[in-house]
């Protein structure tokens, strides 16, 4: 069976990656529609030597569409995705518009695939930093049940889309030639800098990105009591997010057991041999779909059942596009 698929927001970093991943994974497509703004209509996107023409998004764009992959910002998602559902499409949405909606399952295929069947037309793709953290955490949580997490993220500029990638590259080039840097996408210069702000701050001093780790983590793990303290930092790295994670578990779990579980976990590559300088790094995780996990050690600051580890994953692929396509693959298994 083949399917009529539309990508909403096809010209953004995630939308273009979704097109690449659909081709790479040979998703059974009958018709493919690349939907974007009026300004982008007519643009040509070439993937694997195949050329696609971008169409302007209208309410009629979703006629006879089976699956919509949403890669647009929240306002566009809210405007068009309900129309797509009304016309009979099933939507996998990467925006944050519906992630915490009680009627919308929030899915990481390696963590909670069983929740997909709860959908009422829309399935939400979690935030990239949440996906990377939970793919790494899942095997440990299944064995010893996580109760508290302290997470620090080191997030690539691709999280802010094509404009984030361009801004870093342009600032580095400008500085290399002694020129002034332009600051448009991030709050401050990102080249040779770290910015401890992604999104807006709440009354507790936490950013919207930091609260996603708690709120999405609780929903995906079905652990409403999960305690999370997250700090999200923008770093001058192109595509992979890195995360330092401390987890306190209900049950005992030692480092050897954790390594054994991770070595056999879906979507994970164990890279943990510090004495040989082997640990996850963003340059190694870029342009592939596994979450690399390493630096696994007992948390020496407490008597509790706690481990610390470090993980890296490609924010555009597993953090967004690949996760969405994997959800669509699970969907068509059910259709
Ligand atoms: C970021 N996770 O990294 C957010 C949105 N992709 O900017």
TrEMBL record:
Per its record, the protein catalyses: L-aspartate 4-semialdehyde + phosphate + NADP(+) = 4-phospho-L-aspartate + NADPH + H(+)
Q: Which residues bind NADP(+)?
A: 11-14, 39-40, 158-159, 315
Specify the Semialdehyde dehydrogenase NAD-binding domain's residue ranges.
Answer: 4-119
Residues noted as binding substrate in the record, renumbered to the chain: 155, 234
Q: Where is the active site?
A: 128 (acyl-thioester intermediate), 241 (proton acceptor)
The pathway to which it is assigned is: Amino-acid biosynthesis; L-threonine biosynthesis; L-threonine from L-aspartate: step 2/5; Amino-acid biosynthesis; L-lysine biosynthesis via DAP pathway; (S)-tetrahydrodipicolinate from L-aspartate: step 2/4; Amino-acid biosynthesis; L-methionine biosynthesis via de novo pathway; L-homoserine from L-aspartate: step 2/3
Keyword Translocase carried by entry: no
Question: Which Gene Ontology MF annotations are present?
Answer: aspartate-semialdehyde dehydrogenase activity; NAD binding; NADP binding; protein dimerization activity
Q: Which domain of life is it from?
A: Bacteria
Positions annotated to bind phosphate? 99
SUPFAM superfamilies, alphabetized = Glyceraldehyde-3-phosphate dehydrogenase-like, C-terminal domain (SSF55347), NAD(P)-binding Rossmann-fold domains (SSF51735)
Q: What class of enzyme is it?
A: oxidoreductase
* Pfam family membership, one: Semialdhyde_dh
Enzyme Commission number(s): 1.2.1.11
Give the signal sequence positions: none
Its keywords, alphabetically, are: Amino-acid biosynthesis, Diaminopimelate biosynthesis, Lysine biosynthesis, Methionine biosynthesis, NADP, Oxidoreductase, Threonine biosynthesis
Stored SMART domains: Semialdhyde_dh (SM00859)
Tell me a GO biological process for this protein. Answer: threonine biosynthetic process
NCBIfam families linked:
asd_B, PRK14874.1
For this protein, the record's PANTHER family field holds:
ASPARTATE-SEMIALDEHYDE DEHYDROGENASE, DEHYDROGENASE, PUTATIVE-RELATED
Function of the molecule: Catalyzes the NADPH-dependent formation of L-aspartate-semialdehyde (L-ASA) by the reductive dephosphorylation of L-aspartyl-4-phosphate.
Similarity-based family? Belongs to the aspartate-semialdehyde dehydrogenase family.
HAMAP family membership: ASADH
Assembly information from the UniProt record: Homodimer.
Output this protein's name.
Aspartate-semialdehyde dehydrogenase
